[in-house]
Amino acid sequence: MNIFKTTNILMVLLTNLLLVNFSCKKSIEKKQFTSSVSIQKKFYGKTKDNKEVFQFIMKNKLGMSVSIITYGGIITSWTAKNKKNKYEDIVLGYNCLEEYESRSPYFGALIGRYGNRIAKGKFVLDGKEYILDRNNGPNHLHGGLKGFDKVIWGAKEIIKDSTASLELRYLSKDGEEGYPGNLQVKVIYTLNNRDELAVNYEANTDKATIVNLTQHTYFNLSGNFDNDILDHELKINADSFLPVDTDLIPTGEIRKVKNTPFDFSFPKKIGFDIKNEDLQLKNGKGYDHCWVLNEQEKDFRFVASVFEEKSGRLLEIFSSEPGIQFYSGNFLDGTLPTKTKGNYKFRTGFCLETQHYPDSPNQPNFPSVKLDLGEIYSSKTLFRFSTKKN
Ligand code: BGC
Question: Regarding predicted confidence, which is higher, 34 or 213?
Fold first, then answer.
């Protein structure tokens, strides 16, 4: 066989090999594309002012499902597996739009333009004073009377090889709820096949403004909303927290958690210290404080985890944000109905809201929440579910 012929045969073999590999790879990708994740769209209801609301149900190949409605970008249900591999709903919420519209303590919602409180509902930006609603005693909370939790978001489904995403968009007009600047907001929820849900936030403005976006899901990892959350073990990657006054406004002090009931630098049951005679626990009616997270120089890192022993569920949270508000469901008082039967009793849910610190616009020592024209606000949080024995 001459050298030319040998090279030719080798070339043909190589091409065939490449083709086989290529088509194999393609068919595997195709299979993943069509079967490993899905999004289903459903009509959910009409608001009081007759606007249509849709629900998107994202599912992964393991069995996790996350349902989100276009009203408030609310996560209405989210299933996670227990140690027996049973996926159950682990978030508080309602089973109809009417309840979300009429009396929701921000169950599962997207929060903006400013998550958490702004003292006296006012702040000064570039020398100009802005007045916001006082919808929480003397203060402004979670974006005002009609925050991002009560608006209808535009929605687009994005299916990739092994992720299902829901892209939500909202234009908050200049002057809305008293905030300056037209703010274009984009939030993308992405579910993958590792039981992780990522929440990516992005915003830009045409005039200097303030932004602090977060997600307000109430979790109960037991999967049974009759149980309180006091047995859940919480760990927060923070050496300090922000003490507050009786209206839950930070005093400006950054206090070390060591030797206080606020030390969750190691896993500790939420109920372990909650009844302590501690002024901060009294002011918060339990835990309702912002922790100053460690490793703020990192773009993205572990910030908190929660473990519920009976179900074996472990939730780990990663974020780019400098703070996390841990709220132990102190205002749940047995009056709000669950999705099935009964009511949400005292402390049957907790929130871990990754964010900038409360009242930052009035606290020069806190990281800035200002967004200028030409800048892009970008923030990311990831919720990872798994199980462990103990
Ligand atoms: C706040 C609580 C408030 C709850 C529901 C949390 O983010 O920290 O004080 O009661 O939201 O409104």
Answer: 213
How many Cβ atoms from other residues are within 10 Å of residue 363's Cβ? 18
The Å distance, Cα 327 to ligand 1 centre, comes to 7
Distance of alpha carbon 112 from alpha carbon 176, whole angstroms: 11
pLDDT on residue 35:
55
* CA-proximal residue: ligand 1, atom 4 (nearest): 105
pLDDT tens digits, 55-88: 999 999 999 999 999 999 999 999 999 999 999 9
Around Cβ 322, how many Cβ atoms within 10 Å? Answer: 20
Q: Whose alpha carbon is nearest atom 10 of ligand 1?
A: 331
* pLDDT for position 341: 87
Measured in degrees and rounded to the nearest 5, phi and psi for residue 268 equal: -145, 140
Q: What percent of the chain has pLDDT over 70?
A: 91
Residue 238 Cα, ligand 1 centroid: separation in angstroms?
Answer: 20
CATH class of 38-387: mainly beta
pLDDT at 102: 96
Q: Which residues line ligand 1 (CB under 6 A)?
A: 105-106, 248, 288, 325, 327, 331, 351, 353
Kindly report the pTM of this predicted structure: 0.91
Whole-number Cα distances in Å, 318 to 278, 355, 365, 379, 380 = 29, 12, 24, 11, 8
Residue 14: pLDDT over 70: no
Task: List all residues 6 or more positions away from 4 whose beta carbon is below 8 Å from its beta carbon.
Answer: none
What does the mean pLDDT of the chain come to?
92
- What tokens appear for 171 in the block? 């234009």
Tokens at 241, concatenated:
């927290």
